[in-house]
TrEMBL record:
Chain segments annotated as coiled-coil in the UniProt record: none
Positions of the PPM-type phosphatase domain: 7-255
Protein source organism: Candidatus Avelusimicrobium gallicola
SUPFAM superfamilies: PP2C-like
SMART domains, sorted: PP2C_SIG, PP2Cc
GO terms, molecular function: protein serine/threonine phosphatase activity
Record InterPro entries: PP2C, PPM-type-like_dom_sf, PPM-type_phosphatase-like_dom
Pfam families assigned: PP2C_2 (PF13672)
Protein's recorded name: PPM-type phosphatase domain-containing protein
PANTHER family per record: PROTEIN PHOSPHATASE 1L, PROTEIN PHOSPHATASE 2C
Amino acid sequence: MSSFDIEFAAVTDIGKIREKNEDNVLISSDLGLGVVADGMGGHSAGEIASNIAVSVLAETIRKVNNQQLKIPDNFLPKLDPVERKLLMAANLANAAIYSTAQSSDIYRMMGTTLTGVLFDKDCATAVHVGDSRLYLFRDNKIVQITTDHSLAMEHVRRGLLTRAEADHSKIQNVLTRAMGIKKNIEFDLLKFPVKVGDMLLLCSDGLYKGLRECDMAAMLAQGQQTPIVKLCKQLVRVSNENDGQDNISAVLIKILPAQKMSFKQRLRRFFSKA
């Protein structure tokens, strides 16, 4: 059992110029899951791809939890159970998008990013592909936990561009990895401890194109007593005002002290898990 409670909020906005919103977000307090996916491809294909990504990921985790689905014994046995569950769910989501993409010429180029985080005990486990991001806000500092799978960031890693140049580069939107493009893809899997007071921010690139990291940190620091939904809306609104050239999505997660439960609440929790 976790030694804290978790509060979730999610906001997605079409932005100023796009005709449709191809981002999808999902939060589930009962699963301890938050997900952002940023779809791509014409004819609504991006919207469909990102929807499949978040829905299959959550549904698979739910089925494993309810013992309706078993993780094969030979599936990455060296990883811990939470990592195996999250990675299997991501792989099944990718297979579903790839299969849909192959079924019709209209969907042939569909794909999506995926950044999801699953909580278990005192740890967060993240699965990630593409250029959506997961940030950790702790002690008034913000740190990007994920690595962008983009051509621009590949050039930064090789010393061909600075981080500032990459942010304004023409190749910024070229992904080196995404879901749905290939039958089997490589996801990044990251596990780290969380503690009371932490905030986690998952977002599509539309958010960080309109908000510098120092601005995100300032808003999160000032908004620590603000209701989490209001704070999440504020991040999206300010990014949209500053840029708004893309769809903008954010999932904000706050780690709170464990609530003291009454005897009735403890009984209810016990029997709901029995």
